[in-house]
Specification:
alpha/beta; Rossmann fold; three-stranded antiparallel sheet; 5 helices; disordered N terminus
């Protein structure tokens, strides 16, 4: 069980002093401290949540997905949103970015050891989080997501696909997982891998989404696995 919660009312960040299991924790902190905001814009295609629903974004980073939820918040009652990340530097950026977002709580914790009771949330969002864990960590995060979502609640997953143009670049440290020079590694998934991770939940939808972009004058393919699972 996690230790007692420590909350700074000025920062609106809750921290649980628990063992961190994310091997890239310090690499992510370094990236955010050196470069600031890493991800511009907002995340497209996020569901519209109902008033009063509780939504957890695991691995909120510098707030790209949080921005898509906060920006369209309707009049009260609004969804209650929790952003959780292992990087204190990322949470500092979020705190500044969303200083006026009264329905947002930020939590510093490990995705493999979430400090929430069973069935706490209507939605759990895992958007490019599983990509940055090794096999054992991915399995633990998937179990934790299923634990903290309530009966009939949903888990939304997005990962990079093995069809993405970056798959295979870097040092392969596990099958399908490649290490970059920054110390951050990325796993590239098949749809079946994602399905297997959440085999204890019902599949609502699962598909590969791809699009073309130009990089240094070359047309390349970006590809992701998009899935929604439901607790029954």
């Amino acid at each position: 069980m996690p230790a007692a919660e420590h909350r700074d009312p000025q920062k609106r960040v809750a921290t649980w002093k628990i063992p961190m299991t994310h091997p890239s924790q310090f690499a992510w902190d370094s990236e955010y401290r050196q470069k600031g905001q890493l991800f511009a814009g907002v995340t497209p295609g996020i569901p519209v949540f109902s008033p009063g629903e509780r939504v957890l974004e695991v691995g909120c980073g510098d707030g790209k997905t949080l921005a898509s939820m906060v920006a369209r918040a309707a009049p009260v009652p609004q969804p209650s949103i929790v952003g959780m990340d292992i990087s204190t530097a990322a949470l500092t950026l979020c705190r500044k970015r969303f200083s006026r977002a009264n329905t947002l709580q930020l939590v510093h914790a490990d995705a493999a050891r979430m400090p929430f009771p069973d069935g706490s949330f209507d939605w759990v969002l895992l958007i490019h989080v599983l990509d940055h864990f090794l096999t054992d960590g991915r399995e633990r995060v998937a179990r934790e997501a299923a634990r903290v979502v309530h009966a009939r609640g949903r888990v939304l997953v997005r990962t990079f696909s093995c069809s993405d143009f970056r798959a295979g670049r870097g040092e392969e440290i596990e099958e399908g997982t490649f290490l970059r020079g920054s110390g951050i590694f990325t796993h590239y998934f098949t749809g079946e891998e994602v399905r297997e991770l959440f085999s204890h939940l019902r599949v609502v939808s699962l598909e590969e989404v791809s699009w073309k972009i130009r990089v240094m004058g070359e047309t390349v393919t970006r590809a992701e696995i998009h899935a929604v699972f439901q607790e029954e």
